[in-house]
Design brief:
Elements: E1 8-12, E2 15-19, H1 22-28, H2 35-46, E3 54-60, E4 64-69
Antiparallel strand pairs: 1-2, 3-4
C-alpha cells in the first residue's frame, strides 16, 4: 500500500508514537487556507496541548516548524 504522507516514530515525553508532518498533511488534503492559520485552528478545535499531544520540530527555519500529532 502506498502512503499519502510519511508516518514516522517520534518521541513525545517517554512515548514513541506514530507521527506525521502537519505541513505534509495540509498539502495532501489540499487545504486552501494558509498553513499557519489552519494548524492553529486544528490545534484549538481538538484541544491539543504542546508536548503532550504534539511537538514542534524545527526542520527548516525558512519554512517554520512542522507539527507532529499523535495518531
Amino acid at each position: 500500500m502506498n502512503e499519502i504522507i510519511q508516518v514516522s516514530k517520534q518521541k513525545i515525553g517517554d512515548n514513541s508514537i506514530n507521527s506525521v508532518s502537519a505541513r505534509d498533511l495540509h498539502k495532501a488534503l489540499e487545504v486552501k487556507k494558509d498553513f499557519s492559520d489552519w494548524i492553529k485552528a486544528q490545534v484549538k478545535r481538538a484541544g491539543l496541548e504542546e508536548n503532550i499531544d504534539f511537538i514542534i520540530v524545527w526542520s527548516d527555519p525558512l519554512k517554520g516548524g512542522s507539527f507532529l500529532k499523535r495518531s
